[in-house]
From TrEMBL:
PANTHER family: ABC TRANSPORTER, ATP-BINDING PROTEIN. Pfam families: ABC_tran (PF00005). Residues 22-250 form the ABC transporter domain. InterPro entries: AAA+_ATPase, ABC_transporter-like_ATP-bd, ABC_transporter-like_CS, P-loop_NTPase. The keyword Nucleotide-binding applies. The keyword Transmembrane helix does not apply. It comes from the Bacteria. Belongs to the ABC transporter superfamily. GO terms for molecular function: ATP binding; ATP hydrolysis activity. This is ABC transporter ATP-binding protein. Coiled coil: none annotated. Gene3D superfamilies: P-loop containing nucleotide triphosphate hydrolases (3.40.50.300). Keywords: ATP-binding, Nucleotide-binding, Transport.
Amino acid sequence: MTAITLEAGAPFGAAPPSGDAIVTHGLTKRFRGGQIAVDALDLAVPRGSVFGFLGPNGSGKTTTIRMLLGLVAPTAGTYSVLGLSAAHALPLVGALVEGPAFYPYLSGAANLMRFDAADPTAERATAKRRVADALERVGLSAAAGKRYRNYSLGMRQRLAIAAALLGPRELLILDEPTNGLDPQGTREVRTLVKEIAADGTTVFVSSHLLAEIEQMCTHAAIMRTGRLVAQGTIASLSSGRVALVKVETPDVADAARTLGTLGLADVRPGNGAVTAELGGHAPEKINAALVGDGVAVRGLAVVRPSLEDVFVGLTGEGFDVDG
Ligand SMILES: Nc1ncnc2c1ncn2[C@@H]1O[C@H](COP(=O)(O)OP(=O)(O)OP(=O)(O)O)[C@@H](O)[C@H]1O
């Protein structure tokens, strides 16, 4: 579908609905002092996707999100959110940018009631219903009356996401939602993101963790120092990289010979293992040929390229997970 962009802040109704939940063209932010945080960014986030916005710390993710939410003015470029300018899209967008401040001595439900009350567009009479729905959506109904300070890290973050879901949202934007969480909390948030997406909400989620994006997202964009390095479905991002077959064996030289005879490319004998490009070869046939040649096969694995391999291949650099 063709994506239509509006000038940032263009009036409501100036463009027909876009096929994409978020579109940016040449979106740029240069902070005072000359630093470019986001450099000519062209993003296309399909509706219904869980879109991972991936990059090391400082690569421009938060600045991009703040521009999309109308919190920071772009220096140049255009963007649209749900086919609208940020101001007009905002009621349909839930966002978690900096963790909301909750009162430790109030319950989860009471905290959300306070949040809801701060929204001047929300109807007062239906506040309880909205809070109950949001709590249910994040799986906190049973803990609604429990004090916030007694919530686990995962529950606290789920409550923060509930605050972003007070009201019908077509798009949920989450900036590093698993930052600072323990493994259990990380799993809870990951599962919740998938559930929210399954209900039809587009989720745009930033992270500096490659594995997390791979596990949670259907699509990803990779950022590096303010520039977009690549974007697409997780499968298409990885498809440019070749899969390898790795044979673990004490007979390294013999195994390498067999793989070469079979016509596999880039055969590399190593310490107790040989790798080669899999190409169009069937792993079970490779195994049969090795065994037929008397090679003692201890293990045979097909190693698919990870997003990290893609990142390294595109930038020539490792991905510093700690930023
Ligand atoms: N208000 C500001 N004034 C000046 N420079 C800023 C400002 N906000 C961000 N930057 C700089 O812009 C660059 C991008 O920062 P940004 O926070 O967008 O990156 P990020 O990928 O979200 O990283 P992190 O996860 O650490 O927040 C960084 O070099 C940062 O120091």
